[in-house]
């Protein structure tokens, strides 16, 4: 009979993204990137106003998520 496994704490899972930044690190990143973030928001709003934005289809998004979940579950 197999022994039950212990859950792996989130901080021990290697997702390839590195450690989760602290609040101070996140704030410093936002300050460093504020201009680029604001420009990105302005550009997105301009594109939406010009009709270039795609309408999100909730059913399509959920379908994609279900498929991704199944692929991940099957390993």
UniProtKB/TrEMBL annotation:
<protein>
    <submittedName>
        <fullName>Uncharacterized protein</fullName>
    </submittedName>
</protein>
<feature type="region of interest" description="Disordered">
    <location>
        <begin position="1"/>
        <end position="22"/>
    </location>
</feature>
């Amino acid at each position: 009979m197999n022994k039950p496994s212990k859950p792996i704490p989130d901080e021990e899972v290697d997702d390839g993204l590195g450690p989760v930044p602290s609040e101070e690190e996140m704030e410093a990143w936002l300050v460093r990137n504020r201009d680029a973030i604001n420009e990105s928001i302005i550009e997105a709003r301009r594109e939406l106003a010009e009709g270039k934005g795609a309408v999100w289809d909730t059913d399509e998004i959920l379908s994609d998520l279900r498929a991704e979940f199944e692929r991940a579950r099957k390993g």
